[in-house]
Amino acid sequence: MHKSIAEKIKNNLQYVGLLLAAVLVGIDQLTKWLVVSNMKLQDSIHIIKIGDTEVLNFSYYLNSGAAFSKFEGKTTMLVVVTSLVIAALILLLVLKKIKRTPYIVAASLIIGGGIGNLIDRLFNNGLVVDFIDFRIINFAIFNFADICAVCGAALLFIMVVVDEVRDNKKKRLEKAADNAESGNAAENTAENAENGNVAENETEKSDDGND
């Protein structure tokens, strides 16, 4: 029975990926709700502080752009592009076109992060709730959905590069093997021809001796 369940999960990892995306959306919306419910706009709470240096704060800001405040003011474009990407990835998962686990995880992260911020844009006047504020570096304030989307995109990029390198290496090895096989075949042909010539010469010598 356990084996049967494990096999079912293995054969339906794409749906597990969609479930993971839904969980990520839930976490994102919960964290944003907690921030909006307990903080005023532009309020900041110290989370990690070393001496006088603020390392991590929760700072409530609204962002009209994409992850890490990119493309601010381009709400319509972001909604359209995000929707298309999400729809395409969901379709690929449902049709089981994405088969390998790392790609499924990457797609889940991108879908979860995309939907999390898309909900904000559609129901919050095009504005996304950001609150994770790393003060130790001069960096944009972001949220959980941004982390998911960026990690998913990074994982996808890494997997594509790794697969490309692996495929190129495999092709080189196959080519080397083919060349070696061709060389061995040519060498065997030459050796057989040489052996044939030797045998022919020996036969001729034997005939001359008999005469």
Task: List the topology elements.
Elements: H1 2-11, H2 13-38, E1 44-50, E2 53-63, H3 75-94, H4 101-123, E3 128-134, H5 144-210
Antiparallel strand pairs: 1-2, 2-3
Helix pairs in contact: 2-4, 3-4, 4-5
Write structural notes for this entry.
The protein is mainly alpha-helical. The protein has one domain (2-162). Helices cover 69% and strands 12% of the residues. It has helices spanning 2-11, 13-38, 75-94, 101-123, 144-210, and strands at 44-50, 53-63, 128-134. A three-stranded antiparallel β-sheet has the order 1-2-3. Helix 2 runs parallel beside helix 4 and helix 4 packs antiparallel against helix 5.
What features would you highlight for this structure?
single chain, 211 residues, mainly alpha
Low-confidence stretches: none
How much strand content do the residues show?
5-15%
Q: Taking all residues together, what is the mean pLDDT?
A: 86
The residue fraction in helices comes out at 55-70%
Most strands sheet: 3 strands, antiparallel
Specify the number of helices: 5
Shape: elongated
**Computed Rg:** 31 Å
Structural domain tally = 1
Q: In angstroms, what separates the terminal alpha carbons?
A: 86 Å
| Number of DSSP-assigned strands | 3
* Major sheet: arrangement of strands: 1-2-3
Order of helices and strands: HHEEHHEH
Q: Structural class, from secondary structure content?
A: mainly alpha
